[in-house]
Amino acid sequence: MSELITLNEIKQAQSNPHKLIRKTPLIPFANSPEANNYNSLFLKLENLQITNSYKPRAAFYIMGSLNSEQRKRGIVMTSSGNFAKAFALAGSVYSVKVVVVLLDQTSRSKVDAIKKLGAEIVFCGTHYSSRKDKMFEIATKKNMIAIDTTEDRRVPIAHGSIGMEILDDLEDVQTVLVPCSSGGLIAGIASAIKLQRPSIRVVGVQPNGAAAAYHSLLARKPVTIDNWNSIADGLAATRPGNLPFVHITERVDDIVLVSEEDIINSFLKLLNESKILCEPAGAVSAAAFFAKKLVNPGKTVSIVSGGNLTTELLLQLLSS
């Protein structure tokens, strides 16, 4: 069994963040006090983080932890897009060569942004499971450091800072909703919260068509889903990581599912009523609140995890 991350590790990582890492705003969803008292929803705006997603928290922490020999060798990692942007930026700041393994279907806008930040891109086909094989192949051939972000404990340790900020900004929070893919984000947030305030509910949210962690929780072991189909391309994992899954079983209260319609409705509601522009994956956790997937959630925080979407996708969502 993988060793669970500790509160001390989270606090240590949070104590000296890189100057580019932002403490993101936590704002009420509703504009009127009456509506806010009724809905009791707050938004943690990681779409306003540098590179417009929460990923730089871990990318900069990991890059900063490398020794000089490792930095000379460079790193190779896999991503659905947002983590790649984060590592590309961190590599440019720390002067470390970064190679990113991407699926062929990664959006052109994300590919262009990653290249602009100076990372080298290698495509690996259309299957999520092929990414790690290609990553380790490149690491061996080029003598680079492979960063397996799904299993690297530094990822949830760094992302735990989001949970710490929530507790600092909203002491009476009762439920925290977190989008879930391979599980690193929810593992970190749940650890930061449950190790200090175990009464607070931490709930993962996944699309119906991208529910690997949900089915793994039912099976009580990590499982791979045969088919992945969702507009929320930032939640691309077809299997949760082993390390995150241990944290999910120990520190997450539940995982709930939302439909594609729920996600689109959430995206439009966030945009029209709070003027928050996010990518579909960033709207997933709020979708669970709007679709009433929880009973008596109380004062709730939804993680708006990212805001990287193309103009084409934006127009598609607006016309839905």
Structure commentary:
- With 320 residues, the protein is of the alpha/beta class.
- It has 14 helices and ten strands.
- The strands form two sheets. It has a six-stranded mixed beta sheet, sandwiched between helices.
- Helix 9 packs parallel to helix 11 (242-251).
- The longest helix has 16 residues, at 154-169.
- It is globular and about 55 Å long.
- It starts with 6 loop residues before the first helix and ends with a helix.
> Tell me, what's the shape?
globular
Q: Using only CA atoms, what is the Rg?
A: 18 Å
In terms of DSSP E residues, the strand content is 5-15%
End-to-end separation: 45 Å
**Number of helix segments?**
14
